[in-house]
Specification:
This protein is of the alpha/beta class and 268 residues long. It is 38% helix and 16% strand. An 8-stranded parallel beta sheet has the order 1-2-3-4-5-6-7-8. The radius of gyration is 17 Å and the shape is globular.
Length: 268
């Protein structure tokens, strides 16, 4: 695909060890593919600090989120919210999260997940920052908690949405954004998403890779090690454009504008 300038990848785990040795080359390939801005996901206190430091190294190109993933919720201690608040005070940090509920494997007990989730929603409300949301096998409870905080939240995105129509409208009814990944390129598991993506309002749709995971299965040639990276966001863009009947240029412009509005970016 010909590069479409200005794309925004709203979620890439660039602090992951998969990018330890060639991050500069990864970012160069992303720029060559037209990805102008990448949000580096924070998944724990330490990972959020690393994400912020990475954003500091690439001002205007990388930004960070600060949060504790539900898998890490058992480690959400008495000082964690203060640490996230301190990180969020810097301009490089543009959202609270990744936070939410994951009852699929329960790496952290559900009670700890709910407590950490609620504390981060309260923090986002207090700071007037958007929230970057994770959810797996916990939709009903997640929506219930979100509903109780929604009036105080400026915005939220259901990151890496792969759910049903009912779940989609559960988020849309809360006036949330929806993030679409390479899952839509999966001919085994993503067919229902190809049917649903056109129902996401144009001003609520965001694109992401969730790199190094969720490599688009339509990508050719398949990269060695099957590592996903931000340059491959164009594959997601193409699939969503095909499913919605919009041009890649139009969809790129719409989703980039949505991302800049969601993350409160005013530098361009």
């Amino acid at each position: 695909m010909t590069p479409v300038p200005g794309l925004v990848d709203i979620g890439a785990n660039l602090t992951n060890k998969a990018f330890r040795y060639d991050l500069e080359e990864v970012l160069e390939r992303a720029a060559d593919a037209g990805i102008g801005t990448i949000m580096v996901t924070g998944t724990s206190e330490d990972a959020s600090r690393d994400a912020r430091e990475l954003a500091l190294r690439y001002p205007g190109r990388l930004y960070a989120t600060a949060g504790v993933h539900p898998h890490e919720a058992k480690d959400f201690g008495v000082d964690t919210a203060s640490a996230l608040r301190e990180l969020a005070a810097t301009v490089e940090v543009v959202a609270i999260g990744e936070t939410g509920l994951d009852f699929n494997r329960n790496y952290s007990p559900p009670g700890d997940q709910e407590r950490a989730f609620e504390e981060q929603l309260a923090l986002a409300s207090d700071l007037a920052m958007p929230v970057f949301l994770h959810e797996r096998d916990a939709h009903a409870r997640q929506v219930e908690i979100l509903r109780s905080f929604r009036d105080g939240l400026v915005d939220g995105v259901a990151h890496c949405f792969t759910g049903s129509r009912e779940e989609l409208y559960g988020y849309l009814d809360l006036d949330l954004y929806v993030g679409i990944t390479g899952w839509i390129c999966d001919e085994r598991r993503g067919l229902h998403l190809r049917e649903l993506v056109g129902e996401i309002p144009r001003d609520r749709l965001l694109l992401e890779t969730d790199a190094p995971w969720l490599l688009p299965r339509t990508l050719r040639p398949v990269p060695e090690g099957r590592r996903n990276e931000p340059a491959f966001l164009t594959e997601v863009l193409g699939a969503v454009a095909e499913c919605t009947g919009r041009s890649v240029e139009q969809l790129a412009a719409e989703t980039a504008a949505n991302a800049r509005r969601f993350f409160r970016l005013h530098d361009g």
